[in-house]
Amino acid sequence: MFAVGEVFLNAFFQVLFDRLASRNLLSFVRQLQGGVDSELRKWEKKLKMIQAVLSDAEEKQLTDEAVKMWLDELQDLAYDAEDILDEFGTQALESKLMAKNQDSTGQVLSFIPASLNPNAIMSNYSMGSKIKDITSRLEQLCQDRIELGLQRIAGGASSPTAAAHQRPPSSSVPTEREVFGREEDKAKILDMVLTDTPSDHANFVVIPIVGKGGIGKTTLAREVYNDKAVEDSKFDVKAWVCVSDVFDILGISKALLESITRRPCLLNNLNEVQVELKVAVDKKRFLLVLDDVWNEDYSLWVDLKAPFLAAAPNSKMIVTTRNSNVASIMGPIEHYNLKRLLDDDCWSIFIQHALESRDLNAHQISESFHKKVVGKCGGLPLAAKTLAGLLRTTRHDAWDDILDSKLWDLPRQSDVLPVLRLSYHHLPSHLKRCFAHCAIFPKDYEFNEKELTFLWMAGGIIRQSRKNEQLEELSSKCFQDLVSRSIFQQTSSGSAKFVMHDLIHDLAELVSRETIFRLEESTNLSSRRFERVRHSSYARGRLDGKSKFEVFNEIEHLRTFLPLCIRGGVTSGYITSMVLYDLLPKFKMLRMLSLQGYRIGELPIPFEDLRLLRFLNLADTDIRSLPESTCALLNLEILILRNCSRLIKLPPKMMNLINIRHLDIRGANLLKEMPFGMKELKKLQTLSNFIVGKGETASGLEDLGSLNFALLD
């Protein structure tokens, strides 16, 4: 059993309390018939009773399956309650906007439901039933907490402030200032790389580095790859590709070709790619690194290596893998088995990452503490780095408590290292939720700060603080906090791209607790439960039709629909109108919708059915205009229209998008003006560019001057 505990709950509860305390919401529900106001007061009372025992539940669920199930049910309820409160909040916004427009024009906007009437809402059977269902479930959970013996723990972490206290796709650029304990290993691998080795079977020799996860295989390969002796040798071609779980021959071949030629590969036919790859290595001596290989299918390896048979003799291929069987199918009889680090080397790594000062005397490090640290690291560099990241963000007087935690001794039911489990356990509640959401990305996916923080903001994971900090500032702080804890790693020094080690990604998948579903070719759908799924991502294809998303019919409460461009994947494709018109409008709880990279000329989506949407990414599409119903998205915070090169106009009622914070129209070069009333967008934080129009229906410089935002670079 894994210690998840309050993964979403403390932070989630604060979101619910904020919603329940909203002035707009309170003012709106007081007008409603059917006792909505009193029902919501019951919710708040019951939620506070439950929140008081969360700390005890977090501890007891480690050994009590019934408590773990109770927490799962509580998480589901929190999601459902937030959906209802967001619906009420949206109705309150619509009511306010409807009154404003009637006062000014005497007309009701077409996209606002004509049936919107405060007295009719509670009489709506569906909404009334949902409210009473939440109340009933809350009462049952309160009763269950008594039967489970859950109690309030004085000084526990049930308040969010009490706790506050895909493996990286390797590049050839070093990410460590200094590597400890691998001098002998490096010398041996270098000798294999630089020594001419005649082969009867191929022009190249495979050098496999085998070892368990987190032991430093990638770091060792990188040290060899960047060594001056290799730079001075006669390798004509060098390339590095991280392979990871899925052994996609086309994707790997494209990545290798791009690494060798330093040019993007736009081909999507395996034969064409491999012909180009063969030309690139023909009669040339190469050094290639295939990092993190899992494939045990010999026929796939035969297909992948075919172009390299044309290379010059004494070419070398370094392969890193956890599995000796993987190494065996790739040819060599002997593998280089990487051993654990010595205790002193683990200690050096820990000190490098944990202490700002290298003066140990300044930190009063005891010998017993030293022994505890190296004992917990178990000879694994990743464990040393992660433990250091945990302790450097913790008060010095609490270090021993962390090292003595019983979480170290829990039985392992996965490949998650105890130190990773502990590091997660000690994250503040809001960071736990941020981290768990990272499971939306596949392993080895490279992301930048803004890409992820936009998802956090739109997902309601980051909430407004009482210090008047902007959501963007809070999101950035959360991101940088996870970087400082070694949970996110830069792909290379100075890079704006980040990744997660595959073991850390495994942890994110584990703690997301079935709420995130990635549609992948290797997914075993028969064993998957979909009733708890809220967020989904998938690799964009050349033609994505209804059959691809058949399984989505089993998902009722989807909040995130996110196509991604993975390494070697399709950057531009097509999606059928049946998906846009029939499937997506069913997901009325959607907060985040991306159609980036699809060759869409128009949007047949009735956006009035997606009124909770906060994030809409239409970048790199062929749309010419946005439908008027886009202006029904009163909750919309982020609208990305980057590189919409055929977009000629924005909807005239954009002034109604009163919650918009980020508008990106870079590359939409056919736009001639901004719609009238842009000065009403008071929450705007960033705008890529402002196009001053000439007509009466356009916004002018006076609108620009009344806004407080930053222009994007």
Automatic annotation (TrEMBL):
Coiled coil: none
Keyword check for Membrane: no
Domain Disease resistance protein winged helix per the UniProt entry, residue ranges: 440-508
Molecular functions per Gene Ontology: ADP binding; ATP binding
Entries under Gene3D superfamilies matching the protein: 1.20.5.4130, Helical domain of apoptotic protease-activating factors (1.10.8.430), P-loop containing nucleotide triphosphate hydrolases (3.40.50.300), Ribonuclease Inhibitor (3.80.10.10), Winged helix-like DNA-binding domain superfamily/Winged helix DNA-binding domain (1.10.10.10)
GO biological-process terms attached to the record: defense response; response to other organism
Protein name: Disease resistance RPP13-like protein 1
Organism of this sequence: Citrus clementina (Clementine)
